[in-house]
Amino acid sequence: MVDILLRRRFGLLGRNISYSFSKGYFTEKFNNEVFAGNSYENFDISDINFFTELVRNNPDLKGLNVTIPYKEQVIPFLDKLSKKATKIGAVNTIKFTKKGKLKGYNTDYYGFKKSLEPLLEPHHKKALILGTGGASKGVAYALEELDIPYTFVSREAKENIIDYDLINATTFDNFQIIINCTPVGTSPNIEACPNLPYEFFTEKHIAYDLIYNPEETTFLKKAKEHGAIIKNGYDMLIFQAEKAWKIWNK
Questions:
Q1: How many CA atoms lie within 13 A of 158 on its CB side?
Q2: What number of CA atoms fall less than 13 Å from residue 156's CA on the CB side?
Q3: Which is nearest to 127 in space by CA: 178, 78, 161?
Q4: Which among 23, 29, 62, 71 is annotated as catalytic?
Q5: Which residue ranges does UniProt annotate as crossing the membrane (predicted)?
Q6: Mean pLDDT, to the nearest integer, of 171-176?
Q7: Is 71 a catalytic residue?
Q8: For the chain, what is the largest distance between any 2 Cα atoms, rounded to a whole number of angstroms?
Q9: pLDDT given for residue 6 in this prediction
């Protein structure tokens, strides 16, 4: 098995990603002698148009994870998408095929779904998704698979999107799962949080934050103060990373 996996490079595509979960996770994984010869590094690019040069200059790459802000922007640079990535409209995993093609997948939806499911009870009927970026699309797809209706929230109201100013007590009565898919509250800006009336959280609510650093964001702290079940994005990242690993090796 060691011989098969020798000298393979993987990495994370993103911008300002020194904090990366993926690099630490896969580096630790590859320290196991079973995975000897594998390496993982960050590819921090300031613009998606540098992606082509990155691929050309690293012909031994076998797979990439993709993070903010390129989950949607990278799609035109790929040769193929999986069926689910096509439906979701965002990619967080890229496989370099034996024929030299780049195929995009989405494992975010899988990680989110697998980490949310144990928390669900019959009264958790509808979800609010805070944010409309690439990560939110994977979350939305997972909720569809779970038959949970959802509504997006953004700073500006658009078709099928409400703005934060419309959220009130009635909203919290109607939506029992609140999911932060924005970067608001990420280290080092840990005092920040989405603009919500937190006093309307109750023990009937789930507050889920895709952020994992800090472990308990201000969003989660405020929700917990009012009895909500809270969950950060760490388990989601583990699940999506292992799913990516399977894709790279199939």
A1: 7
A2: 1
A3: 178
A4: 71
A5: none
A6: 98
A7: yes
A8: 60
A9: 58
